[in-house]
Amino acid sequence: MGETRPLSPTGRLDLRTAEGELTRAENVYEPAVDIYETAEAITLLVDIPGADPASVEVDFQDDRLRLRAPVPVHEGGTETILSREFYPGVYQREFVLQIPVSPDRIEAHLKDGVLRLVLPKAQGPQPRRIPVRLE
Amino acid sequence: MRPMRLRARHRGGLAPWPELMDLRREFDRLFDQLWRDVWGTVEGGTAELYPPINLSQDADHYYVRAELPGIDPQQLELLVDGRTLTIAGHRDTTAGLEQVSWHRRERPSGAFRRSIALPGDVDQSRVEASYRNGILTVVLPKAEAVRGRRIQVQVG
Asked: Which domains does chain A possess?
C-alpha cells in the first residue's frame, strides 16, 4: 500500500503472523498484556482498544494460546485526518503456556477494550516428587 | 504509583572524576524531568505520550479519539479551554489484585494528562464525548466563524 507504518503505542509492529507472510498487507500490532497467576488459574489481561468485539478470535491448541482482534477504521467517511497516532489493523499475539490448563474451562471476557482470558489450571494427577530412599 | 525511572548507578571500581559524577547527576535529573514531562506519572509502556490520539475533522466538527482501554469514563476529566482540549485521568491495572503472582506487566498504569491543540475555535457548550470498546471519542462542533461558508459560484 506504500503508506508508512509507525509503531503503535500499544505494541510492536510485526508484519508476519505465526504462519508466515501475510498475503495482504495490513498493520499488525502486538497488544500489551499483563499476566498473573493464582492458585486456581492463569489470567491474561490484554489491551485491545478499538477492536471489533464480534471479530475477536481466541484459540487454544497444543499449549499455545493465540489471539487475533481486527481493528476497523474509526473515522467516518466525511472526516479528514489531521494527525494520527493509532491506526486500524489487527492485534495479534501468541503465548506458549508453561503451566497445564484445562482448555474446556477457558473463559474470555471483553469489556471497554480489555480482553480478560482466564485459564484454569489443569486438575488431576499432578507430578509428584518421588522420594529417594538411601540404602 | 511511582513513576518508572532509569537511574545511572555507579557500580564500584575506580571512582570517576568528581566532574563526571556531577555530570551524571545532572543528566539523571534532566532525564527524570524529561520523563515526567513526557509521560506524566504513568508507569510501564514505552516513553511516548499517553493516551495515543487521533485528530480529524469534517466541515462542521473536530473529532478527537483516544485509545483508553479499561478506564471508567465517569472518572475521566475532559476540559475544553479555548482551542485546547485536555484529557486527564488515571488507570489502575492492579486494582483488587494485590495477592496474585505477576508473570508479566506491560500495560500502562497510573495517572495521565494530555492536552491537544485544536486547529480552530469550537463551540464549548456543544462538545460531546462517548466511550466505546476502549476508544474515547470527543466531538467538538466548530465555532460559527470557523466553519466557512460555501460560496456559490454565479455563472454568467
From this structure: 28-74+81-120 (2.60.40.790)
Asked if the structure places residue B10 within a domain, the reply is no
For residue A48, the chain B residues in CB contact (below 8 A) are 69, 134
For the record, the C-alpha cell of B30 comes out as 534532566
User: A80 to chain B, minimum CA–CA distance in Å?
Assistant: 5
Domain count, chain B: 1
Pairing of strands A89-96, A28-29: parallel
Domain interval for residue B65: 15-98+108-149
Residue-wise pLDDT for B10-50, tens only, equals 444 455 566 666 677 677 666 665 655 544 444 444 446 89
Confidence check on the interface: ipTM exceeds 0.90, yes or no: no
- Residue B124, helix vs strand vs coil: helix
Give the DSSP letter of residue B23: H
Could you say which of A32, A36, A47 has the minimum Cβ distance to residue B97?
A36
